[in-house]
Amino acid sequence: MQLKPQDFLVALKLVAWGEQRWTYARLAQELGISVSEAHACIKRGLQAGLLLPNREPPPSGASVGNADANNVDGDLAVQEPLGIYRVTRKRVRRAALPDGAEAAADNPVRPHARNLAEFALHGAKYAFPAVKLPLVAGVPTSHSAPAFAGVFAPGSTDFVWPHPNGTVRGVGIEPLHPAVPFAAMQDAKLYELLALFDALRVGKARERGMALERLQALIDPESAPKTKGPSYG
User: Measuring CA to CA, how many Å separate 108 from each of 2, 8, 13?
Assistant: First the structure.
């Protein structure tokens, strides 16, 4: 199993959504990928340890609907319909869930905060290295993204994802996945996460330091150091 760029993109999207309920259809629509690819991304994310299941797998040998009990690929594709997830009799009681956890319990998976943060901060830029392109109009990324307006001094080189509707001209950066410019424009928090990742890939020392601190706080807030610095978003 080889992790693909879209698997990392899906994991970051789940971070951006937080405790929201979601479906595979919505995940695919907002990322500009197919539903089948969304399923494949979730499966690979689980195998890589970037995601955690919210439900226990069925007992070994148990049949699932009309699926073959020996079909090892049927766990996600069969159990999770493309529509809104049905409430079953075995659903955890609302009172037994901590505050804000009800939506997460209804979703099939959630980010593995510690593992995903470690990968995002120290591994992803090597697995998915940046490719710089000529000057081009596009969507601002790295420290040029709107979330960091005013954080860095004017005159810094702008970095952009090439896009026909781009309004900023700068050094082109090949996005993590072709769907990134579209997906970022649908979700401000995902945009920030992707721009921070690009800051790790192409930024200078100060920009990389900011990106490390901010990504840690967004992906795994419980382990992030408590600072009194400014908010970047």
Answer: 22, 17, 14
